[in-house]
């Protein structure tokens, strides 16, 4: 079972102060218990890094916050909403508005261009075409991949695909960013771009950032670090 160091139990207070709150969360994979009776709260606008060995439940945590995995028991409030009570359609709408996800395993559509992949969240949100174009152009330029807009994703390098995924996470301007090892596949130059974006989005735009990482440069930016002390058996 994974253990998180230096976490205090959640207090009984208004949900309005917190971006994410876990109460009595239990999660297992098969016969392996990942988390048991887990409590913690993340203030809105904070930058939290989670570190620990492979197989310790970091990606599971990201997936629970994104509503891609459900806990076996307990509650998860995100921006005041109990996402454990949402059905699949409500969770899809929640992901579209509330969280920007950069997964460790890419979920881009390889047959589409970089531009089309970044545009998808806005398309599904029924944003009009001109507004979509302005927003996608802005975000791709900000991430530094505007020159790759017309390239089919399947032809991009691993690092370039990661940057497309990052742009897609930002395009809807969500209040929370969830990033699973965001710098792992990047060269030093692209890593610096991501670090600059993380620094700016948290400190300037006030987004809540939760990131799993082994990168000390990322943990140096974080205001709080959660350490998973044991690998799942």
Report on this structure:
It is a single chain. The protein is of the alpha/beta class. It has one domain (4-228): 3-Layer(aba) Sandwich (Rossmann fold), CATH 3.40.50. The chain has 7 helices and 10 strands. A 6-stranded mixed β-sheet has the order 1-10-4-9-8-7, with helices on both faces. The protein has a 4-stranded antiparallel β-sheet with strand order 3-2-5-6, with helices on one face. The chain is globular, with a radius of gyration of 17 Å. It starts with a strand and ends in a 5-residue tail after the last strand.
Provide the low-confidence segments as ranges. Answer: 5-13
Task: Based on Cα principal axes, name the global outline.
Answer: globular
Task: Quote the beta fraction.
Answer: 15-25%
Estimate nothing, just give the exact number of structural domains. Answer: 1
Question: What is the CATH class name?
Answer: Alpha Beta
Structural class: alpha/beta
How many DSSP helices?
7
DSSP helix fraction: 25-40%
**Overall average residue pLDDT:** 88
Strand order, largest beta sheet: 1-10-4-9-8-7
Question: CATH H-level name... which superfamily?
Answer: P-loop containing nucleotide triphosphate hydrolases
Between the first and last Cα atoms, what is the distance in angstroms?
7 Å
Order of helices and strands: EEEEHEEHEHHHEHEHE
Labels describing this entry:
alpha/beta, Rossmann fold, 6-stranded mixed β-sheet, 10 strands, globular
